[in-house]
Design a protein that fits this description.
The structure holds two protein chains of two kinds.
Chain A: H1 2-16, H2 40-52, H3 63-66, H4 85-94, H5 109-121
Helix pairs in contact in A: 2-5
Chain B: E1 16-17, H1 32-45, E2 57-63, E3 73-78, E4 83-88, E5 94-96, E6 103-110, E7 117-123, E8 129-130, E9 133-135, H2 147-153, H3 167-176, H4 182-186, H5 192-206, H6 218-223, H7 251-258, H8 260-270, E10 293-299, E11 306-309, E12 316-321, E13 327-331, E14 363-364, E15 370-372, E16 379-380, E17 386-390, E18 393-398, E19 403-408, E20 416-422, E21 428-432, E22 435-440, E23 445-450, E24 458-463, E25 468-473, E26 478-483, E27 489-493, H9 504-508, E28 524-529, E29 535-540, E30 545-550, E31 556-560, E32 570-575, E33 581-585, E34 590-595, E35 600-605, E36 617-619, E37 626-631, E38 636-642
Parallel strand pairs in B: 2-8, 2-9
Antiparallel strand pairs in B: 1-19, 2-5, 3-4, 3-6, 4-10, 6-7, 10-38, 11-12, 11-15, 12-13, 14-15, 16-17, 17-18, 18-19, 20-21, 21-22, 22-23, 24-25, 25-26, 26-27, 28-29, 29-30, 30-31, 32-33, 33-34, 34-35, 36-37, 37-38
The chains are: A mainly alpha, B alpha+beta.
Chain lengths: 122, 648
């Protein structure tokens, strides 16, 4: 059972681990601007993101302050061609050992769908 | 944590005055005719001016079995409005709103263990409006819990409690509670490995509040002595703790590491992969006087500059200091709010419109407005002008001229800490790493008064009616003071907690700064002097108690918050014209009232989950004083009014 799990983690790392710097709204040196949720599902997803993700997935300009150099701010995540709903869902459920906790015990299925809906427009 | 760490911009010199006239467009600039026109404009536009209507909405709230629900919250908000009004039901399940302007209203009723139920109503001429609610039961009660209900529900007899029931609640409260409301933390469940990962991240984060603390070394300069700031209070730790690279750990990370195994084991046991048989213990719903209130909540933006709120309309005006020194005046621009994040629906279990960056302070002006300054710490001077800090110095906002004046700190002087105050002579006081600063606005001169105990982390500050400035030293459980008339300094020591569950090892742990403390510590944070009396009141955030100090004899009396309220993080105490002490609670959706004559607390409900109240104020203008509460996490400020009609 360990082997497939490690394979999954490696695949997830390959997909998410070295995301390019998030696109900036107004060029280098200005704060990143996440997309604004419009639907109820996106709003719910943003709330779940704020509650569970923001202490690590901080804005790029805050990385040094929060001492989280390795994470990304996840703005423009779905612009990356390899990112799919299923990959994101798996990452949220499985996490990355030593890097990101698994949310399988915290988030209900509906909450993960809402979170993905938000990540698509973030 | 000071969010507006100041940089020093100028030398000790005359203040920079920024007196570019504001653009006239409001009623507060001594133009009565313009003001009348504006009020007339609001009326025509149908905006919610309270005197427009005497109609209201009332009804009954019952559970599914038809029994009346006492203490249920009923809230309403007009279409297009930024104001939400909430009331609570009486013993018969009845509620009634105060008079509301005509309009279309969304309504909702809720109580813990019951499903939020919504309705819509229209208030119009000649129409009596009744709206009853029937609330079905709600299964996922944990989503609705108040933060102290989480503490009530946690087990206190686990192996990690080490035979001291309740020890681990305190360990978590003292190590996690400064940054995280309980519900934010305990609603999550992780494996042991993941809790360890999170602990490591938090431990690294909290170490960022460790030294160097006194960046400018002003404590050393003021005392002409070299102080080591490794340990709170000055000095070094007797037994160093080293990280993997051999570097000594700072004060806060030492505490995190000391409790690491117990924290991870306890969280994995209680909030881990295996469902722990939690007994959800909820507080009784409000009854009697505690339910006989009206809370009006106003949406407000994150802050960052001075906003002025008109309580009658909810309209906000924003004042900003331009690079050219001028003061710009505008309607507060539109801002983004997400109702899933604002705590109004308790079952969403999510309470972080602005996390820790929402409105921290407010001050009720003498001109009918409520001022929302940026940063932390504020006061009014004898003329009613608003003082706070920013732009590298003390800042005065002249409420009549609507202009800022900045009084820069001298170059090389350590910046302000959180507390600010103004004495009877109009001199501005501010806490700083070395003690307290006093600014004479007539000359622009700052004077430093070093604290008796160095490096105690001065925090909140207040000035009493005899011009003594008092400041909490959160890291060493002391309250310092400076006699503004003589320059004498002194301090009052709060004794350590001795009557709560802790082991001998717990008692030997050493101090942290502001985010982490040993579980015998109290953590005095904010304090306010009674402007008409002889006492200063301080709240101990970690210890869950109020301290009263006589301003002349320095006699100390302490009052512990009862039962579960001990974990409510009492924040700022403010004394009203009747001598009643009001205390904001940052880890309970409650407003505390303490009557010094009866020595009894009463707790009033706040209708937003995870509101995280901070620096409050009292409006003594009405016959019955009203309390104003900023929600740092909830993205709102609230006016709490107390009704006298028991029948409602």
């Amino acid at each position: 059972m360990r082997f497939p799990y490690q394979v999954i983690c490696l695949v997830l790392l390959a997909v998410f681990g070295w995301l390019p710097a998030a696109p900036r709204a107004q060029g280098a040196g200005t704060p990143s601007t996440p997309g604004v949720p419009k639907t109820d599902q996106q709003k719910s997803g943003e709330a779940i993101f704020q509650q569970n993700c923001t202490l690590c997935h901080v804005f790029s300009g805050d990385k040094k302050r929060f001492n989280v150099q390795s994470s990304t701010e996840l703005i423009g995540l779905y612009k990356r061609p390899t990112v799919t709903d299923e990959a994101v869902r798996t990452l949220i459920l499985v996490g990355m050992p030593g890097r990101m906790p698994s949310f399988r015990y915290t988030l209900a299925a509906r909450e993960i769908y809402d979170l993905i809906a938000y990540l698509k427009i973030r | 944590m000071s969010r507006f760490r100041l940089c020093v911009l100028g030398a000790r010199s005359a203040p920079k005055r920024y007196c570019q006239p504001a653009k006239a467009s409001g009623i507060s600039r001594a133009k009565p005719l313009a003001g009348l026109c504006l009020v007339a404009g609001w009326l025509v536009a149908g905006l919610p001016v309270e005197s427009q209507s005497q109609r209201s909405i009332g009804g009954v709230v019952t559970s599914s079995d038809g029994k009346p629900l006492e203490g249920a919250a009923v809230s309403t908000r007009a279409e297009g409005s930024t104001m939400t009004t909430s009331v609570w039901t009486n013993q018969q399940g009845e509620y009634s709103f105060p008079p509301l302007p005509d309009g279309r209203y969304r309504m909702w009723a809720q109580a813990v263990r019951f499903t939020l139920t919504r309705a819509e109503q229209t208030l119009a001429v000649g129409k009596e409006v009744r709206q009853n609610f029937t609330l079905p039961p709600y299964a996922d009660v944990w989503r609705q819990l108040d933060d102290i209900e989480w503490f009530e529900s946690l087990p206190d007899d686990t192996p990690e409690d080490r035979g001291m029931p309740g020890r681990m609640k305190r360990v978590l409260h003292y190590n996690c509670g400064t940054c995280h409301n309980s519900g934010y933390l305990f609603a999550k469940r992780f494996s042991a490995a993941d809790w360890e990962l999170i602990h490591t991240h938090m431990s690294n984060l909290t170490s960022r509040a460790d030294p160097p603390y006194d960046d400018e070394g002003i404590t050393n300069k003021a005392r002409e002595t070299e102080y080591t700031d490794e340990a709170p209070g000055g000095g070094t730790f007797a037994s160093p703790m080293l990280d993997a690279g051999g570097k000594p750990l700072g004060a806060q990370k030492r505490l995190m590491e000391f409790y690491k195994k117990d924290i991870i084991a306890y969280l994995t046991r209680v909030r881990g992969p295996e469902a722990y048989p939690m007994a959800w213990r909820t507080l009784p719903r409000p009854t009697g006087d505690a339910a006989n209130i009206v809370v009006t909540e106003y949406d407000v933006p994150e802050g960052g500059t001075l906003n002025r709120l008109d309580p009658k309309t909810g309209r906000m005006t924003q004042f900003t200091l331009g690079r050219d020194g001028g003061t710009a005046r505008n309607d507060t621009p539109a801002y983004y709010l997400n109702e899933y994040r604002n705590g109004s629906d308790w079952s969403r279990g999510i309470r972080n419109q602005f996390q820790e960056i929402g409105q921290h302070d407010l001050k009720v002006g003498r001109d009918g407005y409520v001022y929302l300054p940026p940063g932390i710490g504020r006061d009014l001077d004898p003329q009613g002008n608003v003082w706070f800090s920013g732009a590298g110095g003390g800042v005065k906002f002249d409420v009549k001229a609507e202009t800022f004046t900045v009084y820069p700190l001298p170059k090389g002087w350590e910046g302000f800490e959180n507390g600010k105050g103004v004495d009877s002579q109009g001199r501005f006081w501010a806490a700083t790493a070395a003690g307290a600063y006093r600014l004479d606005p007539r000359t622009g001169q700052y004077t430093l008064f070093p604290s008796v105990t160095p490096l105690g982390r001065p925090y909140g500050l207040t000035v009493d009616r005899e011009d003594k400035a008092w400041f909490a030293q959160i890291a060493v459980d002391k309250i310092g003071y400076v006699d503004g008339r003589t320059g004498d300094v002194g301090e009052v020591t709060l004794p350590p907690i001795a009557d709560e569950p802790m082991t001998d090892e717990d008692r030997k742990t050493e101090r942290g700064w502001t985010w982490n403390q040993p579980i015998y510590g109290k953590g005095p944070r904010r304090l306010q002097a009674d402007p008409r009396g002889d006492y200063v009141w301080a709240s101990s955030y970690f210890g869950g108690l109020l301290s009263r100090i006589h301003i002349r004899t320095k006699q100390l009396t302490e009052y512990k918050l009862p039962g579960p309220y001990r974990f409510g993080n009492p924040y700022e105490p403010v004394v009203d014209k009747n001598g009643i002490v009001w205390v904001s609670m940052s880890n309970a959706d409650l407003l505390a009232r303490f009557d010094p004559r009866t020595e009894r607390f009463t707790f009033y409900p706040i209708p937003t989950r995870g509101h995280n109240a901070r620096n409050i104020d009292v409006d003594n203008t009405p016959a019955i004083p009203e309390v104003w509460v900023p929600y740092q996490a909830g993205g709102k400020v609230a006016r709490v009014q107390f009704r006298t009609n028991p029948a409602r």
